[in-house]
Write a structure and sequence with these properties.
126 residues; alpha+beta; Ribosomal Protein S5, domain 2; four-stranded mixed sheet
């Protein structure tokens, strides 16, 4: 897809109801530094055909400065690998505190592995 057509802002889960739908229609998966949930959407869904990703960073991860840093790092790793996701899928990522201190290259690899797992899992659900 062309770069202009595929940006992070339009690929975000924004509404609480969207997060809840992913939680209800999925199960928890874990991989190293984070856990994740995903759900395949139907093609008729009004959200469109672009994959959407949501990030969570609760207070258990630290103060506001630490949580914001975790979110910034996660957003960048997701942005770099967003093209790996199939269309019509919603993913919610729950990072662990270790994301704050890990090398960015390792974080990228983990996000890429999660997205590869989502691809193989969403193909089985269709």
């Amino acid at each position: 897809m062309p770069e202009a057509e595929f940006d992070w802002r339009s690929a975000r889960l924004r509404k609480h109801a969207d997060y809840q739908r992913v939680y209800q229609e999925s199960r928890r998966y874990s991989l190293g530094s984070m856990s994740y949930f995903f759900r395949a959407r139907s093609a008729e869904d009004p959200a469109g055909t672009q994959p959407r990703v949501g990030l969570t960073a609760g207070r258990v991860l630290g103060g506001a400065v630490e949580r914001n840093r975790i979110r910034r790092r996660m957003r960048e790793a997701v942005r770099l690998h967003l093209r790996e996701l199939p269309p019509c899928v919603d993913v919610v990522l729950h990072p662990r505190r270790m994301v704050l201190d890990m090398e960015f290259a390792r974080l990228e690899r983990e996000v890429s592995r999660i997205f590869a797992s989502v691809v193989s899992g969403s193909e089985g659900k269709r």
